[in-house]
Amino acid sequence: MIERIRDHNNLNGIRFATIEFSIIAFVGAVLTLIMLVLGRWAPGLIFLGITANCLVIVVTGAYSWRAGKVGTGWSSLRTKLQRDQITRVHPHMLLDTVILVIALLLPFVVVVAVLFETFTAKSRSKR
Q: Which residues contact 65 (CB under 8 A, 6 or more apart)?
């Protein structure tokens, strides 16, 4: 997974990806705190998970950035020749993206499903 994250960071530009996911992590952390203070545990846990997932990308990017790597960034997608070269070097990038999205979201799908079942079971038992 780390190699997939590094590849994505590299192709998007390490600085861009690190800053982008830092902002998302910050917003997620603020939303986590707000939800937990309001006693809304389910959204709070979901935002906490999103924040944790973003921090993995931030830390990975920060290590690369600190090592002096910059990545290719969006400029590498300007010409068809460059896009074809990226496709040859990373033929499974689309599949990797799907795997990352599923891996990052699956735990929260399970949490939401369990909470949904718990609350609907309580409402059915009150009838």
A: 14, 15, 18
DSSP E strands in 4-68: the ranges are none
Say which residues have a Cβ less than 8 Å from residue 74's Cβ, sequence separation at least 6: 12, 13, 16
Q: Rounded mean pLDDT of 55-78?
A: 82
79 torsion bin: left (phi>0), alpha (psi -120 to 50), beta (else): beta
Distance CA 56, CA 21 (A): 9
Is 118's pLDDT higher than 90?
no
Per-residue model confidence (pLDDT) at position 76: 64
* Residue 124 in tokens: 């059915």
What pLDDT does 23 receive? 94
Cα–Cα dist 7/81, whole Å: 19
Q: Answer for the pair 58, 29: CB distance below 8 angstroms, yes or no.
A: no
pLDDT at 107: 67
